[in-house]
Design goal:
single chain, alpha+beta, HIT family, subunit A, about 20% strand, globular, binds guanosine-5'-monophosphate
Length: about 140
């Protein structure tokens, strides 16, 4: 059965996609821990770290490396946590592999980030900015 991220990768459901190439897609998390919270997924379906093939994993890592500084700078952050939940016991809710890119500011709570829900409008604006920055 298709998962929601597969549908996002195929553009069948709306998402604030900020970067896309042949193998990966990056888009803003719908319920961000902080503004700029971005998810990177492989287009080829895998559940998590335990079944992804090495090539897809490398592509996901490449995309994360490419967009991380841009995501950080777009919200004026100084750091970033990259997280990945694998299986329900570790907090995975969507079963299509994804990396969380979470920008951090000085003094920001590290282990339990404050949820600062963004509006649809804020996400749309930020996604536009990020797409423009990533085209350069
Ligand atoms: P997990 O706990 O599986 O690592 O995280 C799943 C993440 O996906 C959560 O942060 C959640 O907010 C995000 N998410 C779930 N459904 C959607 C969706 O339909 N669109 C987007 N953009 N993010 C989603």
């Amino acid at each position: 059965m298709d998962d929601i991220f597969e549908k996002i990768a195929r553009h069948e459901v709306p998402a604030d996609i900020i970067y896309e190439d042949e193998d990966t897609v990056a888009f803003l998390d719908i319920m961000p821990d902080v503004p700029g919270h971005t998810l990177v997924i492989p287009k080829k379906k895998s559940r998590n770290i335990f079944d992804i093939d090495m090539e897809s994993w490398s592509k996901v890592a490449e995309t994360a490396r490419k967009i991380a500084p841009v995501v950080r700078d777009s919200v004026g952050a100084t750091g970033m946590q990259i997280r990945m939940n694998n299986e329900p016991s570790a907090g995975q809710v969507v079963f299509h592999l994804h990396l969380h890119l979470i920008p951090f500011h000085e003094g920001q709570e590290k282990n339990f980030p404050e949820k600062l829900p963004s509006t649809k409008e804020e996400r749309t604006q930020l996604a536009e900015k990020l797409r423009a920055l990533l085209q350069h």
